[in-house]
Design a protein that fits this description.
mainly beta, globular, five-stranded antiparallel β-sheet, nine-stranded antiparallel β-sheet, Beta-galactosidase, Chain A, domain 5
Length: 408
């Protein structure tokens, strides 16, 4: 049983994806299985030679690789450490390429645990975002997971999917697929989960990311992609002049620890109203007034909130989520996904992070658009207004994102 599926018509894109894992075996087993994700739009119809794969170091006692994929106009680099997107070169209105994602030049800053990086480009899971108090109940059994973000659990715990070496199970010059076996009890979660992540650069100038997962025991699941975007270039400074439109009329208000209260509130008349495109910085002072650097707003001085996306006719259908635009370079990224929510985060806690090419990343130098199930959804499974967040045996979890790039 596949619990989500996706269909998109528009902008030259036609997706109809019914994703299933089909793979078996654990980390290190490494072979691509049947029943994988549907062929991306613009993809190659025949198997080509593999992507460029380089040695990139070692983590957790295992070799780490850096994979380069390209469609001839855009180039992406992804490592099997956390399936992190380390670089994405995209053209501006004059055809000039720039790397539009924050990150590092080498593996070490991604791996160190002290002053760990802020999930640059990573796959967050087994459950992305927050679980209140690090406790939940599934199928009548109580579970406790790490409280690694104040009193709450964040992004899968101390060593979530972002801190694991994944297998490279398939690749072409324009795509790469990873697989990871998450053991029963890992980070306190129930059940063995087999997860896959596939990155594809299509001929329609899209970065497509596909998550899938199966489990042998009921478990919460919510995988999210955590790139910090800066369409002016990763080293171009603040993103607050970039404009954003989000297809949402409601958001999920939170308490002071960023756990949703359970209500859906209207964005009208609030700083969260992105129904019409506006600069990210237009209303951001609402999160700064009355606070200083020592005592910040709980969000850290900017946006860190989940939006309830406009409903589609059938659950799991692809929908337009957001449009991010940089007026200086002319780059636009239109995001589509088959998830019910998106977390907007404006890099509020970036503070002098030393990144690629000597760049220093400060507050608001990047923006995350994380499509997802709502934060702490595991505590609202009896509320029909809230999305399902438990994966049961026999089901396949599917999360698809398409980032379409244009420039004018």
């Amino acid at each position: 049983m596949i619990i989500t599926f996706a269909c998109v018509l528009g902008v030259g894109l036609m997706l109809c994806a019914m994703t299933g894992c089909g793979d078996s075996g654990g980390s290190g087993s490494g072979s691509a299985g049947g029943g994988g994700a549907a062929k991306p739009s613009g993809g190659s119809a025949t198997k080509a030679e593999p992507a460029k794969i380089e040695d990139w170091g070692e983590a957790n006692g295992k070799p780490v690789k850096l994979v380069t994929i390209t469609n001839g106009k855009m180039t992406a680099k992804i490592t099997n450490w956390g399936t992190i997107l380390t670089s994405l070169q995209a053209p501006d209105k004059e055809g000039k390429l720039a790397d539009v994602v924050l990150g590092f030049d080498t593996l070490e800053p991604y791996v160190v645990k002290e002053n760990r990086h802020p999930y640059f480009g990573a796959t967050a899971g087994r459950v992305a975002n927050r679980i209140a108090k690090g406790k939940f109940t599934v199928d009548g059994v109580d579970y406790t997971v790490a409280t690694n973000n104040g009193p709450n659990h964040l992004h899968g715990g101390e060593d979530g999917f972002d801190r694991r070496v994944w297998d490279i199970v398939d690749s072409t010059p324009s795509s790469v697929k990873f697989k990871y076996l998450s053991a029963d009890g890992e980070e306190g979660y129930p059940g063995t989960v087999t997860a896959t992540v596939q990155y594809t650069l299509t001929d329609d100038q899209e970065l497509k990311i596909e998550f899938s997962a199966t489990a042998d025991k009921a478990t919460p699941i919510n995988l999210a992609h955590h790139t910090y975007w800066n369409l002016g270039g990763h080293d171009s400074g603040s993103v607050l002049d970039e404009t954003l439109q989000i297809s949402a009329e409601k958001y999920t208000p939170t308490d002071d620890t960023l756990i949703p209260t359970g209500e859906f509130a209207s964005v009208e008349g609030t700083p969260y109203d992105f129904r019409d495109a506006k600069p990210l910085g237009k209303d951001i002072d609402a999160f700064k007034k009355g606070y200083d650097n020592e005592n910040r707003h709980p969000s850290g001085g900017g946006y860190d909130i989940n939006f309830v996306l406009t409903k589609v006719p059938q659950e799991g259908q692809m929908r337009q989520v957001a449009i991010l635009h940089d007026p200086k370079s002319g780059r636009t990224m239109t995001l589509y996904a088959n998830q019910p929510g998106v977390q907007l985060y404006t890099g509020n806690w970036l503070d002098g992070v030393k990144g690629k090419g000597g760049a220093v990343y400060n507050q608001h130098n990047g923006v995350c658009l994380e499509t997802q199930v709502f934060p702490d959804a595991i505590h609202h499974q009896d509320d029909p207004a809230w999305p399902k967040s438990v994966l049961w045996p026999g089901e396949t979890y599917s999360h698809i994102m398409v980032h379409k790039f244009t420039a004018e």
